[in-house]
Amino acid sequence: MKRIIFELMALGLFLGVTGRAKADYDFTTIDPPGAALSQARGINASDQIVGFYRETTGGPTHGFLLSGDKYTMVEPPGSTSNVAQAINDLGDIVGSYVDEDGVRHGFLLSEDSYTTLDPPGSTDTLAFGINDLGEIVGAFYDAAGRRHGFLLSEGKYSMLDPPGSSKTLAGAINDSGQIVGYYDDAGGTTHGFLLCEGKYATLRDVPGATLTAAWGINDSGEIVGWYDDAGSTTHGFLLSEDEDKYTTLDVPDSTLSVNFKINDLGEIVGFYRDQDGTSHGFLATPKK
Fold first, then answer.
1. C-alpha angle with apex 278: 277 to 279, nearest 5 degrees?
2. CA distance 74 to 190
3. Domain that holds residue 39
4. Does residue 97 contact residue 107 with C-beta atoms inside 8 Å?
5. Would the N or C end of the chain have less CB density within 10 A of its end CB?
6. Which CATH number covers residue 75?
7. What is the three-state SS of 43-102?
């Protein structure tokens, strides 16, 4: 099925958008204690959730791990601001932090030990995804200020840039090595992409959207992300492996919804803005 969905994407055969899937999910707000705003960025099969929050609007960001009903801080030593972006089924966490000199680095937290992640030649690094094999994807800026995606596998960094891209971000990698993310073309339009077996495929844009960004993929090949409609409203989407169309997935009564990651149970995390403009993390659980 994964091979089939890749070939469909490569041919640009993803058609249409289904209706919103509010009724098919139960939504839970994720707000660490004391948070003025928050976002949930990653989830594994054990329902461990990572993300970040701010205690004051405009203040530094703090990474967090939510395991059961317990929140734990995720803060690399020497960081002044940080974000936890993804967690695999082994409990390894990746993200980014800002050091005391104002430089941003990627990080890996594994077995209570932090490792800094910086591709060669990078001036600014963000790690966004990790699979159960320990392969990590993200984005970095080079000395010229251009943004590239990257893959870190077996200690080696590889640059990820779909053909025709002017800047790229790799958001997630599954255990089959499939990578999703998004890139800007020469005209500045944002498109989602899938990298499978060394071949790039541009995801067909959500019909009527001005921006389509893929960010998460699970081992079944289900993809999540977000798009902007013609009225500049941002919606989350789900692209299922057994359908050749997008499903809009918005938190009820939100003014904006963004989906970041999906686990192998089909649970989705992201963030939404309420009617007062405050950002909250969320967990969307498929109804049984």
1. 120
2. 31
3. 2-286
4. yes
5. C
6. 2.120.10.30
7. ECCCCCEEEEEECCCCCCEEEEEEECCEEEEECCCCCCEEEEEEECCCCCEEEEEECCCC
pTM of the model: 0.92
Q: Which residue do the tokens 């963000």 mark?
A: 126
> Six-digit token pair at 102?
């104002």
- Of 225, 125, 133, 218, the closest CA to residue 178 belongs to 218
pLDDT in single tens digits along all 288 residues of the chain: 333 333 333 333 333 444 445 459 999 999 999 999 999 999 999 999 999 999 999 999 999 999 999 999 999 999 999 999 999 999 999 999 999 999 999 999 999 999 999 999 999 999 999 999 999 999 999 999 999 999 999 999 999 999 999 999 999 999 999 999 999 999 999 999 999 999 999 999 999 999 999 999 999 999 999 999 999 999 999 998 665 689 999 999 999 999 999 999 999 999 999 999 999 999 999 998
Tokens of 171: 């958001």
Q: What angle do CA 279, 282, 285 make, to 5 degrees?
A: 160
The single-letter code of the amino acid at 9 is: M
Element at 7 (helix H, strand E): helix 2-10
CA dihedral 121→125→130→135, nearest 10 degrees, is 10
Q: What's the domain count of the chain? A: 1
- The number of helix segments (H) and strand segments (E) in the chain equals 1, 25
Q: Which of 110, 79, 78 shows the shortest CA–CA distance to 93?
A: 110
Tokens coding 62: 């703090």
